[in-house]
Amino acid sequence: MKRTVKGTKTVVAALAVALAVTGCAGGTNNAGNESASNQGDATTESPVLTNPKDFKFDPPVNVSTGIRWSAQGENEFKEGETIEDNFHTRWMRDSMGINLSFDFVVPNLEDYETKLRLMMAGNQKLPDVFTSKVEMVSDMISADKIQPLDEYIDQYLSDNLKAIYEKYPDVLYPVTRDGKIYGLPNLYAMDEGTVMWVREDWLQNLNLEAPTTIDELTEVLRAFTEDDPDGNNQDDTLGMAVSLKEGPYNWMSTADGLVGAFGNHMPSKYIWEYWNPDENGELVYNAIQPSVKQFLAQMRDWMSKGYIDPEAGIKDAGKASEIAASGQAGIIFGPPWMDGYPLGGVEGFKAYPLPSGPDGQQARAEKTMVRDYLIFNKDFKNVDAIFGYINKIYAAYFGEEDPHFDESLRHGWMEGYDYVTHEGKVYRSNFAEHGVPSEKWPKPGDDTVTYGLTLPFLNGIVPFQSDAAFQKFLDNPDAEPANMAEISVSKAKPRMLEAGLVRISQNENTIVNYFNGPPTKTMVSKGELLIKLMTESYLKIIYGNEPIDYFDTFVQEWKKNGGDEITKEVNEWYKSVTQ
């Protein structure tokens, strides 16, 4: 299935209306938080309008937020810096006149959502600006806790960012209510699509070619299992490492590229994924479609012959990958970044395109495009300041042609943190190798350390923007990055760049989820039960505990135990946003 956007014409038209609303909102009158009301008269005094590239609020504006964050290692910050006070928060204050404070910092999503819900229940003041998953955004709209953003979008948001929303209008569906937009989406780079990792050295040892079809894959799996591909005269290899504990689709050690060989439907461990239209335009739940039965039959065959890990049904993605990382399995499916983890210590793996099925079908799952949404307390007045900041962050990804591009972000987030300059050149790693004096390294004495950045609001990422950079840096590792997206790609090793090009070559062969609204009523009450029914039924078939036709029994059980009601609710939502 080629990637398509549902209801494109309808939503683009709606967005165009929203962006064309006349009048201004939230303009700052240079008196801190004493700003014009959200529906007040237009003010052209906001520095975001008068000087979008180098605006600064004077006196500064105060902005509070809440964030989920936990340290990932001892080198998270330079000594003396914290998530609340670091080079980026100081840059916001000194460069733009935005004083950022943190109402709370919690380590995970569960604690974060609990904190916000307790604040709502106690009628406490919410942070001025914060991110939230779609379900909570919906609840906050209903509770009148957050403000619509249409006029701010029209007045302050960069044209490049507006164009992204017009290109992918479905990202605004979940936060649109009664024609008004209540949130800005935090987007993913969409650079994690599944490729097939194969032990190239094993292929050479057995005089085999990389498989291009399911039939060819079957023969390679057999040979990798039975023909001593590592040449150690021991029966200690498997064809494929895969995780089936939570269904076929996973963040790595996945089987989505195999499901896609049989049809355009993808089972997921979440009840809200995957739904896509049938021939009548009605959304159908992918996990119960006939093509999945074919996939299960194929996995059953491989399992019975010992070609795949016999513990696939009890291993999560990380545990399943250990078999490939230890040199025991010759094939594993997952994203290009697996070059670093978990395959970094195995030289033999190479990325190949996904195999095609009996009818030439070839597809992978496409993950959701939205991580969460940035929303604004209904009483917060300085929305223009945050929009100006967001424009700068995104301009760093769009590059110098963007009118909001800040020259200080040309080479990275901050010199001495994620890059250094020496003798007129920019370096982002291997400082000693390039002759950079130790005192200029981000962490003097250790040239392996650089300091990244946890952005408090939107991450600046543009879907698929980094794709063009994979070939650029494969051709010339020393090429100069043109924007933040290219800076990220420039750090990749050749094998990952090659894997990225394989992924890019199959970007059109994707299975997309068409439901991105909040979980429906029956999803909340019955979803966990139905997902358990799916995973248990699949594994019974794959392990031979039930016949292949047991899939039909599963489908009937799924429907009568809440599935039919969920299907009705999903289509009611779908019609509400596309008609």
TrEMBL record:
<feature type="signal peptide">
    <location>
        <begin position="1"/>
        <end position="25"/>
    </location>
</feature>
<dbReference type="Pfam" id="PF01547">
    <property type="entry name" value="SBP_bac_1"/>
</dbReference>
<feature type="region of interest" description="Disordered">
    <location>
        <begin position="28"/>
        <end position="55"/>
    </location>
</feature>
<keyword id="KW-1003">Cell membrane</keyword>
<keyword id="KW-0449">Lipoprotein</keyword>
<keyword id="KW-0564">Palmitate</keyword>
<dbReference type="InterPro" id="IPR050490">
    <property type="entry name" value="Bact_solute-bd_prot1"/>
</dbReference>
<keyword id="KW-0472">Membrane</keyword>
<protein>
    <recommendedName>
        <fullName>ABC transporter substrate-binding protein</fullName>
    </recommendedName>
</protein>
<feature type="compositionally biased region" description="Polar residues">
    <location>
        <begin position="34"/>
        <end position="49"/>
    </location>
</feature>
<dbReference type="InterPro" id="IPR006059">
    <property type="entry name" value="SBP"/>
</dbReference>
<keyword id="KW-0732">Signal</keyword>
